[in-house]
C-alpha cells in the first residue's frame, strides 16, 4: 500500500557546504517506519529537490517511503531554491556532497547510506565518490550521466560556439526566460527558440530543450508526460551559470569529466586510476536521451568494469529519455522498480 502524499511530512533543513555556501536538505517522512536506512536524492542543474516530487500518481519519493527508506532530498548549489551563484561541478563534488552526507549520517545515526543521483547531481556526486570523499555511501544509483559525458553533435556545436556568445551578455542561461524577460538578450533568445521549436505550446519546455539538448523535446518524450506534469515543469527550471557550460564543454572534449578550478581533493584525471570508492554503482540510461546519449553511462560502466568486474550494473531503458525516468506518467511501473531493486541489493551482491 502506498501512503498518500497528504500523509507525508516534509522538513526543510538549512545546512552549509564545506566552503560555507548555503544548501538545504528536504527530509520527507511518512507514517511507515523507515527500517532500511537513509537514501539521499540529488537533482541536476538549474532545477531543485522538488524535481523528485512531480504531480504524477506515484513519485519516486512515494515508492521509497513505502519501501521503508528514510528519504532526504538535497538542494545543492545548483538548486533554483537557493540564491543563484557561479558554481562548478568540482565545487559541488568537494564542498556540497560530503557535507550533505555527513549531515544525514549525523542526523540519523546511520553508519552508511545510499544515493539516487541525476544528471549534474550525478556527475558531481560521482566525482566526489571516485575521489574517495564519500566513503560512507555504499550504493549509488546514477541516472543519465556520471563520468563520461557524450552528447549529440548539435549539442557540441552549441556548447562550443554559443557559450562564448552568451557569456558576453549574461552570466546565466535560464529556461525561465520562456515566461519572464531580463533584458533584450533574454527576449532575443526566447524569440529564437519560439522560431525554431514547434513541438508544443509550452515555451519553458522548448527553452529546456534549447538549453540542455538537441531534441524536440530533448529531456523527455511528450508521450511520457501527462498534462499536469507538462504544465508543472514551467516553474521547475531557472538559472544555470555559464561556468557550468564551460566546464562541461571541456569535459565533453576530453571524453570524461574534467574538474574546474583548484581542487587538490580531486585527482588531476578522474579516470586514470581505479575509483577510490567501495560503493556499488547502478548506472541507468534512457535509450531515447537526447541530452546525454546512453553511451555516456555505458562508457562509465565499462570504466568501472575494467577495475572491478561484476560489481556494478547497467540498465538501458527503452522508451525513456533524460528526466521522464523520474516524472514519466508510467515511471512508477517502468523505471522505479529498477531503482528500488538496486537499492535493496547488498553492496557485495552481483548484478
UniProtKB/TrEMBL annotation:
Keywords: FAD, Flavoprotein, Oxidoreductase. Its cofactor is FAD. The keyword ATP-binding does not apply. Signal peptide: none annotated. The keyword Nucleotide-binding does not apply. Gene3D superfamilies: alpha/beta hydrolase. Belongs to the GMC oxidoreductase family. This is Esterase.
